[in-house]
UniProtKB/TrEMBL annotation, chains A, B:
Keywords for this protein: Aminoacyl-tRNA synthetase, ATP-binding, Ligase, Nucleotide-binding, Protein biosynthesis
UniProt keyword annotation of Nucleotide-binding present: yes
Lineage, opening ranks: Bacteria, Pseudomonadati, Pseudomonadota, Gammaproteobacteria, Vibrionales
InterPro entries associated with the record: aa-tRNA-synth_Ic (IPR002305), Rossmann-like_a/b/a_fold (IPR014729), Trp-tRNA-ligase (IPR002306), Trp-tRNA_synthetase (IPR050203)
Any one Gene Ontology cellular component term annotated for this protein: cytosol
Protein name per UniProt: Tryptophan--tRNA ligase
Amino acid sequence: MNTKQPTDKPEIILTGDRATGPLHLGHYVGSLEQRVALQEIHEQTILVADMQGLTDNAHNPKKVSSNILNVVADYLAVGINPLKTTICLQSQLPALAELTMYYSNLVTISRLERNPTVKNEVQNKGFERSIPAGFLTYPISQAADITGFNATLVPVGDDQLPMLEQTNEIVRKINSLAGRAVLNECRPLLSNSPRLPSTDGKNKMSKSMGNTINLGASEKEITAAVKSMYTDPNHLRVKDPGNIEGNVVFTYLDAFHQDKAYVSQLKEHYQRGGLGDGTTKKVLEECLQDMLRPIRERRAEYLSDKAQLIDILAKGSQISREKTEKILFDVKEIFGLNIF
Amino acid sequence: MNTKQPTDKPEIILTGDRATGPLHLGHYVGSLEQRVALQEIHEQTILVADMQGLTDNAHNPKKVSSNILNVVADYLAVGINPLKTTICLQSQLPALAELTMYYSNLVTISRLERNPTVKNEVQNKGFERSIPAGFLTYPISQAADITGFNATLVPVGDDQLPMLEQTNEIVRKINSLAGRAVLNECRPLLSNSPRLPSTDGKNKMSKSMGNTINLGASEKEITAAVKSMYTDPNHLRVKDPGNIEGNVVFTYLDAFHQDKAYVSQLKEHYQRGGLGDGTTKKVLEECLQDMLRPIRERRAEYLSDKAQLIDILAKGSQISREKTEKILFDVKEIFGLNIF
């Protein structure tokens, strides 16, 4: 686990995932591994963002609802401990919707349209002017999520930094209206791990592209994924020198293989010539199979007892409901609306 | 009370007011009078729209919070009976905020920007691109209010018809996703009474323009308002013929004087010449003083017992909370989110 910032003092951490698909190795490297470490020191809440998942999936809601428990099982399988981390479901926390309504009056449409993350996603999804209102305004909803827990530290990728800027703008407006610091400004916690590429080495990881390895991937799926992995397209004969830059197999070995010295040796050999992609892929496959086998097994076990998963989510949501209602009370107080 | 549509069968009626100022004679003619009649036959809910009031007053929240109980006192003073009409406070109904979130994913930004009512208001308020997100999206919040009670009939001015169109578009999308009629489409109930002009005869009624007569206006305020009322600017001498078109005194006499034959006589006399504005204003003033005296007295009495007003609002909000939670449950069911 790598974190840039010192985190000696316990922080209030809010993190989460859109429940639009099972989690994959990209999530593992980018954040899950980090969360498992963070839960030991900090007050960490993980939000399963089903409502946010619907902002661009309202016409295909099964994509969200069918993945809620999968995501919870993914968390547990990688070592998130519900006794140390509160896992909750966004749609079970009405205070977040209410905060979103209040904050919406403090953010202009043009401010939202300037948000680089949203701009980018709107372009990627081809929304243009047919962008759903809920999608354009989701930075406000995210601000409600973060401030609803009064989070001080939010683990994000650097592409998500504009979201925290938007959140802190809202925090400052609320605090200025209140005349005192009701809400905490939050700081980003950037991961030191470089972003994991997709198995095709080109596109963004996406379930529909088939270029990810899910945490629950079967043995066969792992084999197939490693087999089809992008390497050095100019490395045609085993004896030729190969390129490790952009070679996904080596990026994954760097990320997952425990024996860093052995990976260094392999890299040198590959660059010198005489090491075939079949061999490097075999090493990676064995590494991933070993790593994912226990995760897959634990995941399947958790998923075989849905009542337990629901119970974990329900208990976490109850705790979170109390926290978020308190913040909502403070915000409504600013607007003079706690009259009964 | 005039209603265009037949209303023999009990309907579910949702109506309300933004809590941004005390109610005035324009509200009385346009809707309060109608509501007093409707409560005898129908299931009527009146929503005190504090959250909607904040969509363009977030930086001056007192304008909203200080008027909530005033508006409730106005209702009771004109004859709204809390045993027959449920009076509730929007900010006490989290289900409305949650419904707004779900519906936001079904409405595009460009659809909102095309809404004629919003377009008009954006222009009037001089928002242009600095329009708050909550203001642009308030038709979605209104759809949540209406469908949250599964209203079938919504009393509106004709300028509000685009709001009901937007609501019914959302209803059809929700019902289509559900594959069955979960939500009712609503019909407008237009008042037969023509819109009451402001006392200056030119601008929209507004507290800041000082061109309204509040239901709680003092005797002196009524005297001053009638004195300054717009008449016929070319009616310079008593003996000259006067014009009753656009003459606010006559419009108000039409709206409020009980003796229609007497008003007809006055009109003929005025048009013929020989009737001064001082005289017609005296008639109107007497009529308004008689009409508003008991309303003002009842209003003051209600406002002297704030605990009672809060109790009425709290009880109505509790009933409404149960109703709106049921609808929210049905909508969440469509999205597969009632997992615990």
